[in-house]
Amino acid sequence: MRKFLKNHVIEDIKGRWGAENLEDNGALYRFPPTSPVKPLPSPPRENLENFSGDKGKLFKLPSSSKRGLKKQELLQSVENLARPKADVAEEKKEGTQQRREITQEYVQETWRNIIQIHLQSILGLPSLEEVLQPAQIIPEFVMYNMSNTSKHGVVVLQDKAEDLPHWVLSAMKCLAYWPRNKDMSQDTYSGFERDVFRTVADYFLSLPEPLLTFEYYELFVNILDLLQPHLERVAVEALQICCVLLPPPRRRKLQLLLRMMHRISGNVDMPRLHDAMGTRSLLIQTFSRCVLRCAQEEDLDELLSTRLLAFLMDHQQEILQVPAYLQAAVQDHLEFVRKAQVGHFECEKEEICAILPTYSYCKQITPQEFEEQKVSTSQAAVAELLENIIKDKNLSVKEKKKKLKQVSLFHLLVPEVGLNSIGIKSNDFWL
């Protein structure tokens, strides 16, 4: 304590210190108000005189102070401050330009992902793995099919060598607008329209691959679960997406064929194209395998393809429209990414979602009603097929037996929609 008093760590109540005469006599001591080691810093007198004028430097530009800066010092200060800011701004600009650049590969992958999301949602499948692989979605085909169309929505091909031959187009146009588009300058004869129809049919039957391609066979077959009256809108949406996946030449051929079939089927002025078969049945039976079939021949292909073609023909205008909501979903996603990259949105707080179509139904049915409708629809299709086979006078007995054998096989595989269910006994069937 004496050392503390001597070195001014403490002092008596009167402020005295420096001696070691410290006694335990009840006297009061205190810590001094100043540090015993370092004196309080005090500015020079010159700075104190100018403090009132220089304190503005804390809140104002250097040029506003009373002291001011020399011109050379001011220019040097400005240069030193501006240089790093310019560098930062330039780097930020370059970084922004780099972030804004979205590669073509990213755009294509966006198309692929959004198509998968929509299709999976429409089909109600947990996964598309067994029906459609990502590699089967060619974004270039989709973008071409959606952007290169005529005023009627038909794909326009840049390479005319991939288009239908001119004589096939002329024949199809003749039938589609019969008799208005019939060339009256040439003499026609009885049965002329049948020969023109046979010419068109021969061309499509000679194609090595169906218009829906072997590659997408499983995809379109899965949609056949959807061809029910209460699921009609869902089936249209699904087929609309699936058809836009086709190579542009295939999609154009399919569009022109379905448009021709639709016009012929609804043309009351069109003469009969077959003596024993109605025009609609003839169209479906003739072109079904040109539209859908698998690479390996199967007995049930005809049943599947006829059902699908009938639906396509009846809803061709809706199905072959460009699915604009897909394009909107892709554009919205890309725009979101661009804005997120330049800081307009906080990516971590936003969730990127595709615009999914919503579906509503007039009436919800029970699972039992669904099963009943599924069976009744199939029974009607089988009955119609049998009737067409029986009434077809152009088929030989051998050909009829072959087709009836296919129906018989279907009866064995699915007995609940087979022959007995439509009132035909097995013995009567073969008679």
TrEMBL record:
It comes from the Eukaryota. Residues 46-57 have a biased composition (Basic and acidic residues). Transmembrane segments: none annotated. Residues 126-320 form the Rho-GAP domain. Residues 33-44 have a biased composition (Pro residues). PROSITE patterns: RHOGAP. GO terms for cellular component: nucleus; transcription repressor complex. GO terms for biological process: signal transduction. Pfam families: RhoGAP. InterPro entries: Rho_GTPase_activation_prot, RhoGAP_dom, WH_DNA-bd_sf. Residues 30-57 are annotated as: Disordered. This is Rho-GAP domain-containing protein. The lineage of its organism: Eukaryota, Metazoa, Chordata, Craniata, Vertebrata.
